[in-house]
């Protein structure tokens, strides 16, 4: 088992990374949120697999279990879904000490976490992420929330979990596209904090893609270490935590611009970019802007593109899938990190070091957008 302790002024919890850990969820939950009842909010596609394992473990530990499913697409990461989940918890009379467990990817974790943060003014919360993206990013740090028509994650809260249980066996059944999307966040962590880990990913990528058990545990472990260290330094994103947004201001605009292409299923045939794919494009755009401004060596962009290409993530936009640069810049102004009408970007200086700036001009940002079209 690999573990990471996350210690904050008002919270302390453990992130556990090990194969098969869902089998002892009930035992671990008893140690951090003992009560008569517990609620699981689970991705509807996992109900009869990992959901069944989790429910059995909870029942063996003496919990009366309420299990509610949800569809894990960005379209369902909404206040309508939250209202439905409230209804289930109220119907089953979940109390203030009853833990809510998220079982699924980042969408499930964000929605379940928002429900836990607001139901009865806050109940215990546990994350059981089943995707790489959720394990290395969304499940750690306490950010929870939902989307609204105006943009992603504009309604939310900080609600730290009592425990994060990463069962790396779940990654072996993950669709290839979802694994690649999770790797985008791993690349991000290397760029913003660790040249050594960026190099580790370059060297061990084949083992990761082959779903080697040891490589998966090591991959999740070092990424969680980076994410946890940043969160501990800046829990509420007053400064350093903003570094985790490298590529994301561009990415959120891409997601907003292409969401109308989604069929609602967000499968391989959909025209919408998945989050990790948008982050991949966003990192390329941000790094190219930094290189063109003379603030970052060109080698960083070359290595970044080479690694993303090997993973199978996009480094240039498919023709016709993005709006004109001016429209994309306006979407960027809807980002929740905008201050005084100025777009804030995280730009690399070198591998392992980034800076936050609001001094990029519209012309520089437009050039970065245009570069994605080749």
Question: How is the secondary structure organized here?
Answer:
Layout: E1 2-7, E2 12-18, H1 25-32, E3 37-43, H2 50-60, E4 64-70, H3 79-91, E5 100-104, H4 106-118, E6 125-129, H5 132-138, E7 143-148, E8 151-158, E9 163-167, H6 176-193, H7 195-209, H8 213-233, H9 248-258, H10 275-292, H11 298-311, H12 325-332, E10 345-350, E11 353-357, H13 362-372
Parallel strand pairs: 2-9, 3-4, 3-5, 5-6, 6-9
Antiparallel strand pairs: 1-2, 7-8, 10-11
Describe this structure in words.
By secondary structure, the chain is α/β, with parallel strands linked by helices. Helices cover 45% and strands 18% of the residues. Strand 7 and strand 8 form a beta hairpin. Helix 5 runs parallel beside helix 8 (213-233) and helix 6 packs across helix 8. The longest helix has 21 residues, at 213-233. The radius of gyration is 20 Å and the shape is globular. The termini are far apart.
Summarize the structure.
The chain is an alpha/beta fold and 374 residues long. It is 45% helix and 18% strand. It has 13 helices and eleven strands.
Number of helices: 13
- Give the structural class: alpha/beta
Beta content comes to 15-25%
Order of strands, widest sheet: 1-2-9-6-5-3-4
| Low-confidence runs | 260-269
The global form is globular
* Overall pLDDT: 93
Q: Helix-strand pattern, N to C? A: EEHEHEHEHEHEEEHHHHHHHEEH
Helix content: 40-55%
Largest sheet: 7 strands, mixed
Please give the number of β-strands.
Answer: 11
N-C termini distance = 44 Å
Our Rg estimate from Cα atoms comes to: 20 Å
């Amino acid at each position: 088992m690999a573990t990471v302790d996350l210690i904050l002024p008002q919270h302390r919890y453990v992130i556990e990374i090990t194969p098969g850990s869902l089998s002892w969820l009930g035992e671990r939950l008893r140690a951090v949120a003992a009560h008569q009842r517990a609620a699981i909010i689970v991705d509807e596609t996992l109900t009869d697999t990992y959901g069944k394992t989790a429910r059995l473990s909870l029942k063996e530990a003496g919990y009366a279990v309420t299990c509610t499913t949800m569809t894990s697409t960005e379209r369902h990461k909404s206040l309508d879904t939250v209202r439905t989940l409230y209804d289930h918890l109220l119907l089953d009379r979940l109390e203030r000490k009853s833990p809510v467990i998220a079982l699924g990817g980042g969408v499930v974790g964000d929605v379940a976490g928002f429900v836990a943060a607001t139901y009865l003014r806050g109940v215990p919360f546990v994350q059981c992420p089943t995707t790489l993206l959720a394990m290395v990013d969304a499940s750690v740090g306490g950010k929870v929330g939902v989307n609204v028509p105006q943009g992603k994650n504009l309604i939310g809260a900080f609600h730290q979990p009592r425990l994060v249980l990463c069962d790396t066996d779940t990654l072996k059944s993950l669709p290839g596209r979802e694994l690649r999307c999770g790797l985008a966040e791993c690349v991000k962590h290397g760029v913003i904090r660790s040249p050594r880990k960026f190099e580790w990913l370059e060297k061990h990528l084949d083992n990761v893609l082959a779903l080697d058990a040891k490589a998966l545990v090591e991959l999740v472990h070092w990424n969680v270490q980076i994410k946890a260290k940043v969160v501990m330094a800046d829990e509420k994103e007053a400064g350093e935590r903003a570094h985790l947004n490298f590529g994301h201001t561009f990415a959120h605009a891409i997601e907003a611009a292409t969401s109308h292409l989604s069929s609602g299923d967000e499968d391989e045939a959909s025209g919408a970019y998945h989050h990790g794919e948008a982050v991949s494009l966003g990192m390329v755009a941000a790094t190219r802007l930094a290189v063109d401004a003379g603030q970052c060596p060109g080698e960083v962009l070359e290595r970044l593109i080479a690694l993303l290409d090997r993973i199978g993530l996009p480094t240039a936009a498919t023709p016709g899938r993005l709006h004109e640069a001016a429209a994309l810049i306006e979407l960027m102004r809807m980002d929740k990190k905008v201050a005084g009408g100025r777009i804030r970007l995280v730009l690399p200086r070198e591998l392992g070091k980034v800076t936050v700036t609001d001094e990029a001009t519209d012309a520089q940002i437009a050039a970065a957008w245009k570069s994605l079209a080749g």
